[in-house]
Amino acid sequence: MQDPTAPFEILLVEDDPADAGLAKRALRDGRILCNVGHVRDGVEAMAYLRRQGPFAEAVRPDLILLDLNMPRMDGREVLQELKADEELKTIPVVILTTSDVDRDVNASYLLGANSFITKPMDMDAFFDAVKGIEEYWFRVVRLPR
Q: What is the pLDDT of residues 70-96, one digit of tens each?
């Protein structure tokens, strides 16, 4: 059993440097003790999760914040591969994307996403959304550890 006082581990999969910086800042400024790993696309995300190459020492995340629209391997492909993997499929995934298209929402849930959040365009609202994710997933919900 993992130490309940240990920080939560979050993997942020985000190709936009501004959004990634804002999300990391919101998580760092939140009330929950957490470590944030960051990768820029789906190829890096899967290498991180499988502890391959430069991510050999990566820690298994308690939660993944996943953008949908990224180069090389998009969030839909990551989600599909992740949920098909017996070792990784129990990690909760929150889609955090600019898309608000019903097709993307429905596809994400069908592929196994646990939540779908459209990134607010306002910086303060984006900051609040990330803090809300943190609050819900680490204070309200019980995660597998």
A: 999 999 999 999 999 999 999 999 999
What is the C-alpha to C-alpha distance for residues 75 and 57, in angstroms, rounded to an integer? Answer: 23
Residue 67 has which token pair? 């953008």
Query: Residue 99 is inside which H or E element, if any?
Result: none
Distance between CA atoms of 27 and 32, rounded to whole angstroms? 8
Residue with tokens 């929150």: 94
d(CA 30, CA 107): 30
* Alpha-carbon separation of residue 25 from 19, 21, 31, 126 (angstroms): 10, 6, 12, 11
Structure tokens at 138: 């680490």
pTM: 0.92
Residue 100 has which token pair? 């608000």
What number is the average pLDDT over the span 89-118? 94
Sequence-ordered alpha helix ranges (H) in 39-141: 42-49, 75-84, 102-110, 123-135
